[in-house]
Every structure is written in structure tokens, then in C-alpha cells.
Amino acid sequence: MMAAEWSKKQRRELRDLQGIAWERELAAALQVLRGDFDAWERSQISAFDLSDRIHEYHNGKSRELFNRYSGSSNHFVILRAIASGVIAESELSNELHECLSDDIVEVRKRWNSSSEDEVSST
């Protein structure tokens, strides 16, 4: 379905889901950074190491998430979030789920296939 074909209600739901997915992925990434702060407080890493990790987070994961989720709503972002388990299908309205159901199946297949490829190559 193209963006122009989405109803106003569907566009609003996609935007809301995009915000939820962004916040969930951001929270997970910040938990990793929190662990670095904890390690610093226990003197397991230096202040310089912590500073480097903050810098890496800012220029890495934080920027990646910003680029993925900021800007206009994109239903492909929601499909990716569903395939990766960030958003549950049950969080979609029946109307939106019906519109996306075929795409969800296809993206899940691709996601699982690419995840298996990564596992088998390591």
C-alpha cells in the first residue's frame, strides 16, 4: 500500500507505532550504555573508556535509530519492528493488521532468513 492510500486514521496509527518502536529500541540501547556507567562507577573502566563508549553510542546506535525512525511515517519501519519483535502484531488495530498482513509474512520470512545467515556465518 502506498502512503497516499493510507487513511488519516491509519497514518496516525503508523506514526504512533513508529514512536513506540523508536522508544523501545532506544530504551534497549540505553540499557547497554547504563551498564557502561555501572562499570565506570565500580572502577571497572576508566572515565576515558566511558567517554569513548558514550561517543560510540551517540555516533552509532543513537544515530542509527534517529535515521530509522525520524521523519515521515513509513510502514516498512513498522514491518521491520514487527519482524524483529519490537512491536507485536497484537498492537495493530484490526484494520491496519488486515492491510499489512501479507507484508508482515513476507518481511518475517526475509528477517528470519537474514538472521539465520548471520548466525551461520559466525
Count of distinct strands: 0
**Average of the residue pLDDT scores:** 89
Basic shape = elongated
Proportion of helical residues: over 70%
Question: How does the major sheet shape up?
Answer: none
Tell me the number of helical segments per DSSP (H or I, 4 or more residues long): 4
Query: Low-confidence spans: pLDDT under 50, at least 5 residues?
Result: 118-122
End-to-end CA span: 36 Å
Q: What fraction strand?
A: under 5%
Structural class: mainly alpha
Rg over CA atoms, rounded to whole Å, is: 18 Å
Order of helices and strands: HHHH
In short:
By secondary structure, the chain is mainly alpha-helical. Helices cover 77% and strands 0% of the residues. The longest helix is centred in the N-terminal third of the chain and has 34 residues, at 8-41.
Structural features, described:
By secondary structure, the protein is mainly α. It has four helices and no strands. The chain has helices at residues 8-41, 47-69, 75-83, 94-121. Helix 1 (8-41) runs antiparallel to helix 2 (47-69) and helix 3 (75-83) packs across helix 4. The longest helix is centred in the N-terminal third of the chain and has 34 residues, at 8-41.
